[in-house]
Amino acid sequence: MTIDRSDVELARSVAGEAGALLLAIRERATEQGKALGDAGDHEANVLILERLRAARPDDFILSEESIDDTARCAAERVWIVDPLDGTRDYAEGLDDWAVHIGLAIGGRPVVGAVAVPTTGRIYTTADAAGRARACAVPPRMVVSRTRATDMVERVGMALATTRVGMGSAGVKAMAVVDGRADIYLHDGGQYEWDNCAPAAVALAAGLHASRIDGSPLVYNCANPLLPDLLICRPELADQVLAAIAATR
């Protein structure tokens, strides 16, 4: 499928603008804790919806922070966004949170931009292509800082991985994209907005991205629950999938 570069640039621009807004909200220090997270979620969502609707009025949008319009299910093009991935990390003053702007076309994650505002990085499907990488020995596996599941821990032990705790799904996935990690495995429950943009960027980078049974990631489903995910270096995919199967 040919990717429209203007879609990528739109995703990059919107992710960057939302990220800058989220930094400004945190810096103004008028909210704390949950109120800060709520303000970030809401204000970033408003900005993202405004920008996407103005630029692509015929496209549908599925956002974590908006009421779902199920008419999107019949659409070919659907933007799938998480205005603030890692709300708890953001509210606690940590750095590993992200903004996800993804575009699914025909159910496939085709365009993605993942902004990590505290680092100034925006990863996109255009930038990721052709990245060179070498797998570490032992492989490095990113896991939830606070709630890695038993299955993830068992797979990590079976593969003798070095486990690295991180926050948001987008930050974990981008650690594999830029070579700081080799495996991101999740089975604790996610939604399409948690992984559409990260999966698009990972696939563009030549990484393996699938469900934990090896089946393809499909987006714009009537039920946006997408509970499990594997992103890893392609040479590790068979080993990781086999280790997952052995734990089930």
Describe the model.
The protein has about 250 residues and is of the alpha/beta class. It has 2 domains: about 5-125, Fructose-1,6-Bisphosphatase, subunit A, domain 1 (Fructose-1,6-Bisphosphatase, Chain A, domain 1); about 140-245, D-Maltodextrin-Binding Protein, domain 2. About 40% of the residues lie in helices and about 20% in strands. It has a 5-stranded mixed sheet with strand order 1-2-3-4-5, sandwiched between helices. A hairpin with a 4-residue loop joins strand 4 (about 110-115) and strand 5. The mean pLDDT is about 95.
- Tell me the total number of β-strands: 10
Strand content: 15-25%
Helix content range of the residues, please? 25-40%
- Count of runs of 4 or more consecutive helical residues: 8
Within the largest sheet, what's the order of strands?
1-2-3-4-5
Q: Which CATH first-tier class of the largest domain would you pick?
A: Alpha Beta
In quaternary terms, these chains amount to: single chain
CATH topology of the largest domain: Fructose-1,6-Bisphosphatase, Chain A, domain 1
CATH homolog superfamily of the largest domain: Fructose-1,6-Bisphosphatase, subunit A, domain 1
CATH architecture of the largest domain: 2-Layer Sandwich
Question: What is the helix/strand order?
Answer: HHEEHEEEHEHEHEHEEH
Terminal residue distance? 35 Å
Shape: globular
How many separate domains?
A: 2
> What about the largest sheet?
5 strands, mixed
* pLDDT < 50 stretches: none
Mean pLDDT across residues: 93
